[in-house]
Amino acid sequence: MSKTQKTNLMRLLGLGVVVLLALVPVIGTRAAVQDLFMVMTMLVLALNWNMLAGFAGLVSVGQQAFVGVGAYAMFAAVILWGMDPLMGILIGGLAAFALSIPMAFFTFRLNGAYFAIGTWVVSEIVRLSLAQWKALGGGTGTSLPKGTTKTMFGVPQIKDMLDVSSAAAADALTYWLALVLVLATLGISYAFLRSRMGLGLQAIRDNTEAAKSVGVDPTRLKALVFLLTAFGTGLCGALLFIQITRVTPEAAFSVVDWTAFVIFITVIGGIGTLPGPIVGVIVFYALQRLLADYGTSYLVVLGLIGIAIMLFARRGLWGLFSDRTGFELLPLRKMPPARAQ
């Protein structure tokens, strides 16, 4: 089988998986819908962080700032301004985008580990600030008004179509939105990385001085990626907390849940590759299920696995698989034009 045939086969399998995932609310249980919702939202967070660290070289440990701001903006839109939660998702993304502008202004003056620490410090400042917002519960947080998710736009129609309860219909709606967000994030990332700007971004990651010598502006491209991934992360944060229905500063700005786990997913799957986070989130979810009875000790296992992969498979599990088999699901390299005969 040729390399092209292998790639086409992988794409066909990927399409089949997408169709199967879309049918889960129809043919699966509500528990499966809720579990896969969390898997897909974690995948969106990982894809965005991968764009930052894997392609732009910006190792941020403050992505929880955008999750938290997206969640709080959605709650404000619903509780204070009377909006539909679905409109609140967009408000959450825009709020995270707005936060990323001053955050980039300050953190882009730092490099390497200092940049990583700087993003975490900004996240903590935002968390402490929102903990003072009394209208949304202050330090103890608040919940969505009772029945809010059951009356979201589209829920009554899904309820009638699937013949399920309003709560199950709300779960199905947020599940499909998460699937759309995954596909949109993957599609936009792939299109961007295959464009001239994306190739310039990868050139910056590999050799900044060489990229500058051919006219690439590193600061402009990195800032663009930082702002766009903040928007995507904010959307995901708002969607996550529609499902959770309660927000607190500690939950919304959890560095473990929204950054540490995301980094683990990306690293074990394959940082700097688009399929890597997909593989990583599957492994992460499987390990969580297998080790659920062992309490927090599963964190030790995750850490050991992460260390082993960094030592023996630098390109992650997907990189190892791709190197051994020649399969490429979303290839980013452009082949040179064929010579004229």
Question: How does this model look, in words?
Answer:
- This protein has 341 residues and is mainly alpha-helical.
- The protein is built from 15 helices and two strands.
- Strands 1-2 form a two-stranded antiparallel ribbon.
- Helix 1 runs antiparallel to helix 7, helix 2 packs antiparallel against helix 10 and helix 2 crosses helix 13.
- The model has no long low-confidence stretch (mean pLDDT 89).
The outline comes out as globular
Q: Could you report the average pLDDT, rounded to the nearest whole number?
A: 89
Cα distance, first to last residue? 26 Å
- Portion in strands: under 5%
**Biggest pleated-sheet summary:** 2 strands, antiparallel
Class by SSE composition? mainly alpha
